[in-house]
Amino acid sequence: MPHRTPLIERYRAHLPVTPQTPRLSLGEGDTPLVRAPALERETGIAEVWLKVEGANPTGSFKDRGMVVAIAKAMEEGAQAVLCASTGNTAASAAAYAARAGLRCAVVLPAGHVALGKLSQAIAFGARVVAVRGSFDDALALSRELATSGEATLVNSVNPYRIEGQKTAAFEICETLGDAPEWLCIPVGNAGNITAYWKGFTEARDAKMAKRRPQMHGFQAAGAAPIVNGEVVADPQTIATAIRIGNPASWNGAVRARDESGGSITAVTDDEILDAYQFLARCEGVFCEPASAAAVAGLRKLARVGTKPRQVVCVLTGNGMKDPDRAIALAPKIAEVDAQLDAVRDAIRVP
Ligand code: F0G
What we know:
With 350 residues, the protein is α/β, with parallel strands linked by helices. The chain has 15 helices and 10 strands. A 6-stranded mixed β-sheet has the order 1-2-10-7-8-9, with helices on both faces. Strands 5-4-3-6 form a 4-stranded parallel β-sheet.
């Protein structure tokens, strides 16, 4: 028996799987839900939980949806898969395609993909193409290429992706015994907030939960089309994962916000980086900058208005995805002779 029950097995009653669907798995899902005591103290909220999606096999939540999308592509006889990506979708598609024996091509915005993600796509043997343009350009091109039928598109416009990703909401309900009062989540292409809302709705209907949460989504201020109510032609943020100006699941995000009585607001890059460092230094949890947007947003909401008693923040990706960002924030590393006194002096806090 595998260490973890494969996601497709565990939630088969809630997923579009048939006896013909291959039982593909790299050990995705069943990620830790970790208490955040420092955030609880700071915000005055009784329970703050972190859903650590960086613990998935390729280090992001994408694996939940990708395992279903690739398994269905196999079932349907596909030979190749294709996606546009800010990095994590590419890493996940490349890994599951490698496992499934399918060819994989990924289309990335040149110069705006974090190093760890790029190294994964290359290591897993994907054909990597960088376009001079944004993620939105890459997605438009990939959608057009996929219409020829040469490759199956595995972006979150593929409904199997949303189906797989909704399982994170099931896990949260199982662990807490109900849905939380609030869910805080970063928003980029808006597939994940759409998937969580679907998951919480199905969890309530299946009596896994009594309520649904208020959905609070956060975009980076320089890439906040849903907040602004218009497409952003040239999105900019240090949180490269959510550097998106025209989200494919825009309507799904708006529906999640409105049906849940939640919000979608913007957080600045400074607020994102502050939350990123706080999580690492005060909670011992290293996530990537886009993920920290959820916590930056929670801190902001907690300063105004009524506070909930219980919140879950979704930490969508592992901090090691973007090593350049962590290192750029570090003071210069001391390099000394290999001698006791020199090392002791260098360690001593001034
Ligand atoms: N957090 C991380 C770490 C991501 O990689 C993404 C999206 C998001 C949040 C936002 O999720 O798009 O469903 O709203 N990354 C995509 C990619 C776009 O290509 O890897 P979303």
